[in-house]
Design brief:
Strand content: under 5%
Number of strands: 0
Shape: elongated
Number of domains: 1
Distance between the termini: 19 Å
Helix content: over 70%
Length: about 150
């Protein structure tokens, strides 16, 4: 029964991370619109499929028997999102880079910078949590399998 409680707690924690991630993605998207920071078609596709849709699908799958698939999808989406955001917000010189934003108010710039940083942090925390849960779930599944064999 302890494993079931742990699994339920892990599902709840990852669902909360998914909800927070979605809220911050929406906030950051609003900052993109406020400063007129446009994305290419390929970037937009990546944002909608990997950053928005994949974590939502993963959270839905967490509550089914496909938890291993959900964990892999959540972890992959968060890692890919983190790399994408870090590259475009902090490395690649473009209007999406926090040091190269288009004209706008100081408040709009601050909100864009803050939303980008918070987004990166939530993606990192989500990925770490998913990796931890994946390891715990794999270990508990292996323990149950070994116990069943004996």
């Amino acid at each position: 029964m302890t494993n079931q409680r742990g699994l339920t707690a892990a599902r709840i924690v990852l669902t909360v991370f998914g909800a927070i991630h979605l809220a911050v993605v929406i906030w950051h998207g609003a900052m993109h619109r406020e400063l007129a920071v446009a994305l290419s078609s390929a970037q937009s596709l990546f944002v909608y499929v990997v950053i928005v849709l994949a974590p939502l699908v993963a959270v839905g799958l967490l509550w089914t028997r496909y938890i291993q698939l959900a964990l892999w999808l959540f972890l992959t989406a968060m890692c890919a999102s983190l790399v994408f955001g870090a590259y475009y917000h902090y490395v690649f010189v473009s209007p999406d880079n926090i040091h190269n934003l288009p004209p706008g108010s100081a408040g709009a710039h601050a909100r864009f910078v803050n939303s980008a940083a918070i987004l990166a942090l939530i993606q990192l925390e989500s990925a770490l949590c998913a990796a931890f849960v994946m390891g715990w779930h794999s270990a508990s599944t292996a323990t149950r399998t070994i116990g069943a064999i004996q």
